[in-house]
Amino acid sequence: MLRGKSSRCVAPRQYSFWLRCCCCPQLCWRRPRQHGSIVGTVTDPSGAVVSGAKVTITNVATGQTIELTANSAGAFNSGAIAPGTYKVQVFGQGLQPS
Known about the structure:
The protein is elongated. The chain contains one helix and five strands. It is of the alpha+beta class. The strands form two sheets. A three-stranded antiparallel beta sheet has the order 3-2-5, with no helix packed on it. The chain has one helix at residues 5-23; strands at residues 39-41, 54-59, 65-69, 75-77, 86-91. The protein has two domains: 1-31; 32-93.
């Protein structure tokens, strides 16, 4: 007969782990999530930054859009987005659609 906390607790924990893996495999083997981001700096034709420019990022396949505003340095960052093809549009003072 074995005595001590470790001999009594190890087996139930091991069974619990394997039981979770058999019943809910997504809890034990998670596939890493894939994502990226779109970052940039908005500048006018002369190279000056355009602060406050509106940036629209649209997923071509789903039509989902993200609307951002460039900061005082003209920078923007979409944050985490799923892989795919995106259309980026920028609207601001001194900018013309191309």
